[in-house]
Amino acid sequence: MNIEPYRSTAQPCQYSISKQGENRPSQPYRQGRFTPNCMLRINDVKTRTGLSRSTIYSKLDPKSSAYDPTFPKQIKLGVRAVAWLEEEIDTWLQQQVMMRH
């Protein structure tokens, strides 16, 4: 699986997951299955959630008082780069809205 830049003005995501050798981003629906195809970097997660960078990482740290085991875990892209699956961030946001009611 390759992670390659996604250059479309229609989608806000920066990275798309596609199978090795494909020249285009993968489609989200194939043969009735959903395949997450959009990766969000920290600035995108901050924009989507409205949380600060330090709050996001506090939610991921089990030693923090702000720890949230339901917050999506990041995916390591390289030595100093991580990203989150757009679908997981959106699902977490929907759960927060549902808990409000």
How far the N terminus sits from the C terminus, by CA atoms, comes to: 40 Å
- Percentage beta strand: 15-25%
Structural domain count: 1
State the helicity in percent bands.
25-40%
Overall mean pLDDT: 77
Tally of DSSP helical segments: 3
- Strand order within the widest beta sheet: 5-7-6
Characterize the overall form.
Answer: globular
- Indicate the CATH topology: Multidrug-efflux Transporter Regulator, Chain: A, Domain 2
What's the order of the H and E elements?
EEEEEHHEEH
Largest sheet: 3 strands, antiparallel
Task: Specify the CATH architecture.
Answer: Orthogonal Bundle
The CATH class assignment is Mainly Alpha
List unreliable stretches of 5+ residues. 1-11, 18-32
What structural class results from the helix and strand content? alpha+beta
Tell me what you see in this structure.
- It is a single chain.
- The protein has one domain: Multidrug-efflux Transporter Regulator, Chain: A, Domain 2 (Orthogonal Bundle).
- It is built from three helices and seven strands, in the order E-E-E-E-E-H-H-E-E-H.
- It is of the alpha+beta class and 101 residues long.
